[in-house]
Here is the input.
Amino acid sequence: MATIRRLRKVLIANRGEIAVRVLRALRELEITSAVVYSEADRAGLPVLLADEAYCIGPAASAESYLRGQAIVDLACRIGADGVHPGYGFLSENAEFAGQCEQAGVAFIGPPSSAIEIMGSKVRSRQRMVAAGVPVVPGGVEPVPDPESAAAGARELGYPVMLKASAGGGGKGMRLVRNDRELPAAFRAATSEAKSSFGDGSVYLEKYVERPRHVEIQVLGDQHGKVVSLGERECSLQRRHQKVVEEAPSLAVGPELRRRMGEAAVRAASAVGYWSAGTVEFLLASSGDFYFLEMNTRLQVEHPVTEMVTGIDLVIAQLQIAEGAALGPEFDDVEPRGHAVEVRLYAEDPYHGFAPSPGRIRFLRLPEGPGVRNDCGVLEGDEVTIHYDPMLSKLIVWGRDRPEALRRLGRALRELRVEGIRTTAPLYLDLLRDPDFLAARLDIGLLDRKLASGELRRAEVAVDPAETTGTGDPGETEDPMAADVPMIAAALAYRDACARFESAPTRSESGSVDERSRWRRAGRLGGLRPER
Ligand code: ADP
Here is the structure.
């Protein structure tokens, strides 16, 4: 039994909402928090909230958030005993996890060996087949050329998917419906895979028609115990990327939940997994389910599981990293009520999801019963094109799905974002869509509806000042007139920001060894690293 090694200081190697999310967990555990930030994020919310903040380079991710060795060196220099990678960036980088391990800094995630295996679609499929986890029918080796791909596709039966062995983020993936389409699809998938991952190899999978995307949240400890915390329904996707997630799935009853949970636990155990992870499945209309991949990190959509299980997944990750064992309270966890998450992107959903960078002139987040915001921005922030455009996640909980959806509608009408466009209007439209309301979902549903134009409300009248986030006509008036306490709070906040702005953000020498301005200002003191 591994001994408990208390974390005293954790460095967060991320930005935006997930950095804030991890900060909150650290604060609850009374662990000192440190964040890295790029020059573009120097006035960002994580820097304001963290006990310590360190600039690690210019805006471009490759020169800042992706500098693995520099981040490990920084962790050592500041005496951090753990690094939390969040999601994206270095979170699924086995080399980075290995560098942390070698430096004696706890990587708040799984062992690097598990990341390595699950990072390859081909190798993970091989491992899953060996472990008796159902995978999508198809190959377990890359196909070397279009001719062998065509032979394999005929054997599987069209339609098929060509997928990058090293895949991720939907890159290097092509649907092929017949022999004629295959050579061009092979070339496209191979070259996209090569440019995205430096590895052009692709393999074949049977294309599952109109499946749901259902994934299982697992937790594993360092003593060999792995548990399932139930499923999330992530079928509402745009171009294979999730947009709305919920838990539980209306397509999953207790028996299927048990079987999918068992398969997910087998999958994770097969690679010696610990920490939080997600096993993704395609659920066919027949009720058969197939392993798609395992995400060896915290997912964007983890809050819906937290809302229906009451388990704080980031706190669990931290305690597991300390060596804690998963107790009986993690066994047979059943979902309570229903939770839905929508991702608020700085994009215009009705103009091809065009990026909408700019300054957030006004921001009002919804509150009230059953509403949670995991937000990474502040009013006054500049949304740049350097990073993922997700600003915030709105999560609602209700005793059942209809109640959760009513709350979602209410919360979306309370939300107000000015200065940039967001995807909020799309979610209000979805709340009037009969298929979404009836949970008749599949992974292509949203794309089909967007293509046909049927989602868009006739009265999506966005005012010329680029106000978004609300469909309530009463909300298009001057917000300043609407909410006097809000104005006072905004002004006080602006004053506080001005004070911070006047403080230097880098030390004279330009070194990274810099204390957070928030900490120096003594505004959020009180955390004692020693426990
Ligand atoms: P990536 O890792 O690049 O995101 P995934 O394997 O996770 O790729 O697949 C992403 C999405 O693509 C899935 O959620 C699903 O919508 C679709 N997809 C992937 N494989 C198949 C398949 N064999 N049949 C049908 N849809 C698929």
